[in-house]
C-alpha cells in the first residue's frame, strides 16, 4: 500500500514509482477513457486515506463525471462552482484542507473532509480535472500536490 504520510524521502520514492507505473500502464493505449479509467484505479490502489478519486471532463462549459473509483458522485458541476469548478476557472490546482470552509463546496459525499483537484489539459486547453477526496481533514500536502501534478502531466501525453 502506498504510504503518503511519514518520511518524505520514502514518499517521494513511492510517488516516483507511481509515475513509472502510470507510464507503463497507459503508454501503448490510445483510448482516452481507458487511460483515465486505469489512472483512477492506479491512484485508488496507491493512495491511502482517500474515499474518492476520478475525473470530471469539460463538456459544453460544464464538468461531467468521467472515470472514477468510489461511491456514486455528482454528475455535472458548473465551471466556477465548488472545488472542481474553481480549478477549471482559475486553471490552478486547488488543495483544500477542510472542504466545509470552502465557499460553495459541493458535497457529493458527506464523508469527504479534504480535497485536491488538478486541472487536466489537452492541446493546451482544459480537458477536465483530476479530483481526489479524503475522509480526513488536511490529508494533502505540498508533496502530494507536486507529484499529483506530475501524474497529470504524464497522463496528458496520452489523451
From TrEMBL:
Transmembrane segments: none annotated. This is GAF domain-containing protein. GO terms for cellular component: cytosol. Keywords: Coiled coil. Belongs to the free Met sulfoxide reductase family. Residues 12-39 form a coiled coil. GO terms for molecular function: L-methionine-(R)-S-oxide reductase activity. Residues 50-152 form the GAF domain.
